[in-house]
Design goal:
There is one protein chain. The chain is an alpha+beta fold. It folds into two domains: 297 residues, no CATH class; 78 residues, Roll (Pdz3 Domain). Helix content is 48%, strand content 22%. It has twelve helices and twelve strands. A hairpin with a 2-residue loop joins β5 and β6. The chain is elongated. The N and C termini lie far apart (66 Å).
């Protein structure tokens, strides 16, 4: 049985790469990177990362989470309805094509798929689209009301962990007009994560429309592995603080929300209406997390603006002299090679005073004054690899 299980799992994973959600998500992630590079070059004449960085990150960051999710979901016996998986994939595809990645949270996918399926089942009867059809005997007050909220909660926990760990590392600075008519710099994080998840479905649900799909026997029942690319999107602007201070807190809040949704979903075993309540509460609370953070940040002044003395660093290029010196976003460069500076032009003029050895006086976010120095080589970036407020 174990060899049959592994063989069917392998075949199911091969079908994963034919899923249109996977292909569209890859293209969307690449487009995110291309757009970011174009904007950074317009604002700073240089890009922080390559245009393919978002696509590579979308693939690499989510596979371990997907493995853990798959083992956990199958291990505790969360058998899902195939119709819900189809509807979930349709919803994901529409959200990706809309490019509104604030809406690309898995709690929205799961809830919309659940209630759309319920509406079709209630008012449209047997719905047939090609070889896929919605049956009238779906149990929205039983299995679906239990498994969907629990899985949605686990998906939310995954989203929170990804936001907490990766969102701040993949931000991009951009120029905006301040309330006083000046020019300031804010941060944008816009990402997609592709999390490969394998779900367990009763074999008869799949064989009714796809008899060729691999199945395995467990006890007296037949099951199929259905791999799906869970595409999680994230989009957030930050103007009054730093991403590495805000996003870990935001990710933690999302993960705790996921735990609450899953816990309420478990309660649906005894009271099915709790499953419905868990999905609705999850949607409302996830919307509130984004809305509260956005509203609070929008009402505050832009933090990184031109200074009368010194210039703010907004980003540091990888493997640059600035990174080797330990310069980070938010540092205020007060002087270079003993020369006080007031703008970007003075900064790089001062660097040329001693082109072989650069000394910086830096005030960190904590207000502490630090001295940084670095030997410069011919191949080093002439701007030290720093992007600064202009």
């Amino acid at each position: 049985m174990s060899s049959e299980l592994l063989l069917n799992l392998k075949d199911a994973l091969l079908y994963f790469f034919l899923n249109p959600v996977w292909l569209v998500a890859l293209v969307a992630a690449y487009m995110l990177g291309s757009k970011r590079v174009s904007r950074e070059r317009t604002d700073f004449n240089v890009s922080i990362r390559k245009g393919s960085a978002e696509m590579k990150h979308a693939i690499s960051a989510g596979w371990l989470h997907g493995l853990v999710l798959s083992i956990l979901i199958a291990g505790i016996g969360l058998i899902v309805d195939f119709n819900w998986i189809v509807m979930l994939s349709v919803v994901m595809l529409l959200v990706i094509l809309s490019f509104s990645y604030k809406l690309a949270s898995p709690i929205y996918y799961a809830a919309i798929a659940f209630f759309a399926l319920w509406a079709l089942n209630r008012w449209a009867g047997d719905v047939s689209i090609g070889t896929w059809f919605v049956q009238e005997d779906l149990d929205f007050s039983g299995t679906l009301a239990i498994t969907v909220p629990i899985i949605a909660g686990l998906f939310l926990i995954t989203e929170g962990m990804l936001v907490r760990r990766h969102a701040a590392r993949h931000t991009s600075p951009l120029f905006v007009q301040t309330q006083r008519g000046g020019r300031g710099t804010i941060y944008q994080s816009k990402l997609l994560w592709i999390v490969p998840v394998v779900l367990l479905v009763p074999g008869h649900m799949v064989s009714e429309f796809a008899p060729y799909w691999p199945q395995f026997t467990l006890g007296a029942e037949k099951f199929s592995f259905i791999p799906i690319p869970l595409v999680i999107g994230f989009s957030q602007l930050v103007r009054s603080t730093f991403p590495d201070e805000l996003f870990p807190k935001m990710g933690k809040a999302i993960a705790w929300l996921g735990a609450a949704v899953a816990a309420i979903g478990i309660g649906a075993i005894w009271m099915p209406v709790l499953g419905w309540a868990a999905l609705l509460a999850g949607v409302v609370c996830r919307l509130l997390i984004s809305a509260v953070i956005s509203a609070s940040d929008r009402n505050k002044q832009v933090m990184l603006v031109p200074q009368s003395e010194g210039v703010f660093v907004v980003a540091v290029l990888p493997d640059s002299p600035a990174e080797k010196m330990g310069i980070v976003a938010g540092d205020l460069i007060k002087s270079v090679n003993g020369i006080s500076i007031h703008n970007e032009d003075e900064l790089y003029d001062a660097v040329q005073v001693n082109a072989a050895h650069c000394r910086l006086q830096v005030i960190g976010r904590d207000g502490e004054v630090r001295l940084k120095q670095q030997v410069l080589f011919r191949h080093d970036h002439f701007r030290l690899g720093m992007l600064v407020v202009r």
